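Sample 1 of the test manifest.
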Amino acid sequence: MNLETVLILSGIIFTIGLYGSLTKKNSIVVVMCLELMFNAVAIAVIGFSRFRPPQVLVDSDVLSPLNVLSGHMMAVFVIAIGAAEVALALALIISIYKIKGNIELTGLNNLKN
Amino acid sequence: MVFADLPTLVDIVFWIIALFTVCGSVAIISVNNVFKSAVLLALTMVSVAILYFLLSADFIGVIQILVYVGAVSVLIAFAVMLVKDVPRSNSANNLINLSIIPSTIFLVIIAFAIGAENWITKTTINYEEPLNEIVVSNVSWIGELLIREYFISFQIAGLILLAALIGALALLRREG
Amino acid sequence: MNTVLDSVVFKFIYCMLVSSDECANSFKIIGSGFISEKYAIIGFLITAFFLIFIIVNGALVGVLALIWGERRLVGRFQARLGPNRWGPWGIFTPVADAIKVMFKEDISPTLSDKFVFILAPILMVVPVLMIFAVIPFGEATFLTDLNVGVLFVLAITSTNTLSVLMAGWGSGNRYGIIGGLRAVAMLLSYEIPMALAAVGVILMAGSLSIIQVIESQVIPYAIFQPLGFLTFLIASTAELNRSPFDITEAESELIAGYMTEYSSMKFGLFYLGEFMATIASSAIIVCLFLGGWKGPEILPSHFWFMIKWILMICVFIWFRATFPRLRVDQIMELAWKGLFELTLINILSIAILMLIWPDPSITELWIMTGIKWIVFFVSLWIFGKLLGPKPLQKNGVARKIVLQK
């Protein structure tokens, strides 16, 4: 386990999420794929925070929690925003379902003409 | 009692969990039942949480389980149950073949970017020992940082959550 | 922070296996084991396996004892004898039960989703077993001391929402789905007061580690913050799906809700998970609010922990025997209009008191306790006025009952 493997893992998960969100018709699955992408980013920042503290640290030799835990803080915010995004997205999906009767993204072309 | 071999054990667990995470995320987009993908999302999130534990981010791992498994997956499964007939349709749109190209390009770019940088030699100091001390007991530090350095971001995150709550309620309010 | 090697039980087994200087120093009589220090990892793994084996089997035996104890005790509450045929005082009744459950026919309905249907009972039991990993059963007797212990327990208990939903949906039964939806609404609502009541404890202890929470309790938090204790107790009863909050299964309304289609050992796993959760959350309440292993020094710490633990389980049984089941709307009202605000009042009062006395001595602690009790009674009185049943008689005239359309 080193930084490269963690980053590659994060990249793979992000790519899977990207592919899923590009190809899926069902909007709930697209939301899940967005969550996967959020998590890939969180894995990457936690990996950076664990293995390679920021450049400031190398210069000043000061090991303050601000330097070491900045990745953790980013992950906290990623998780918080991810939760908010899911709540809103599902509310949108349900209200779209009430109006149109299905939730397929390919059907949402009312503005086309 | 110092375990010299413990890093190897951590490595083995890491590879198993990494494999599990990747398989889980592939399964999410490949099973044809949306409820099953919601369940698989929960399992994948648990394995991501274990990854965080391995990266000595205990707090983030626990929060991951609390938020993603306890709330987000449940909400998604709940939404799947509220939608008629959709649970059995997880079909793809007509971009299914075309999308492989940008995804592959993205992965290749990331791989090259990671490979180009020499991560180990960039850091000159030996950070292993003191880092562990700070990171292992990180909960109180995280609390301190949240209300000092990251105070404004913390408040904004709270505001966003509140806005999401009100927005979701407003969207689904029954008319009249 | 304590590591796993500070645990006496762990060290004992480990030192019988592995030879090292530290072992030889700490256990003079036993000395040290036969595995050389080079392969200490093997000793570590074997020890971990032993401990997990003990914990899992201990939990299973605990469930058998609980089933027997609950039946006997509920019988006494209802002025009858309870099961008394198998063995002395009916002590083998749960064993007969277990054998019966195991040999029943295992049916899975045609409409069910096999993957989800089979996974649900497993996901019900595994998280509960994981809770036992962070419980300290006595002084220096624990499996791990996570520095996020309390949060870990809350996170792990929150996962059973998903397995209930899976069971409801996977069995392809209308009753199951209704039970599952009710369960999600209830469990998600009661997680919030549960977590907020734990915040009061965390604020006082200044740590999330369960061992440090126990060590910080000069006065047990049940006495120190009655509001937090009451809300945590009610919320955890709801989280356990126990009566009076058992609307998710509700035998008389929903023919057992999400468990309708389950039979044989799959049903057995649900049953097991539920009883194990009762045991685990009694242990958590003992750790967070009743001072854990602490007690007068005349008896060992493990004894005090056991006493408090059994007492707490009896409180849950007492709840079950006494209270009638609440309606769905009453349950949601209690969570959002009652407990949520009460926990906020609890947190606010503790924060203010801690601002006044940042480093309290024992006298100041008792003053704080007195203030907390006043807050407890006043807020309970106000919420009782607001949420309680309206008086049937007003000015001597019976209130008109207006039926809504």
